[in-house]
UniProtKB/TrEMBL annotation:
GO terms for molecular function: protein-transporting ATPase activity. Belongs to the SecG family. Its main location: membrane. GO terms for cellular component: plasma membrane. It holds the Pfam family SecG. GO terms for biological process: protein secretion. The chain crosses the membrane at residues 53-72. It is found in: Cell membrane; Membrane. This is Protein-export membrane protein SecG. Keywords: Cell membrane, Membrane, Protein transport, Translocation, Transmembrane, Transmembrane helix, Transport.
Length: 76
């Protein structure tokens, strides 16, 4: 039960983190206004930290999926 809740939390957090990334151009982010310059962008240090946090949350999300799969396999 705890891993299911963790998976839901990590999924929501991962979606928010991915949406916070600055658009690189030419994709869907430009279509929805992501290509506009804004003062919210921040420095490159902030962008690198956001990248690192996104990778860590992605790895935790993947680990939750693996653990849930193993638990389901062992319970059946």
């Amino acid at each position: 039960m705890g891993f299911s809740i963790a998976l839901i939390v990590f999924s929501g957090l991962l979606m928010l983190l991915v949406l916070m990334h600055k658009g690189k151009g030419g994709g869907l982010s430009d279509m929805f206004g992501g290509g506009m310059q804004s003062s919210i962008g921040g420095s490159s240090v902030a962008e690198r930290n956001l990248d690192r946090i996104t990778v860590v949350v992605g790895l935790l999300w993947f680990a939750c999926i693996v653990v849930l799969g193993l638990l389901m396999k062992l319970n059946s």
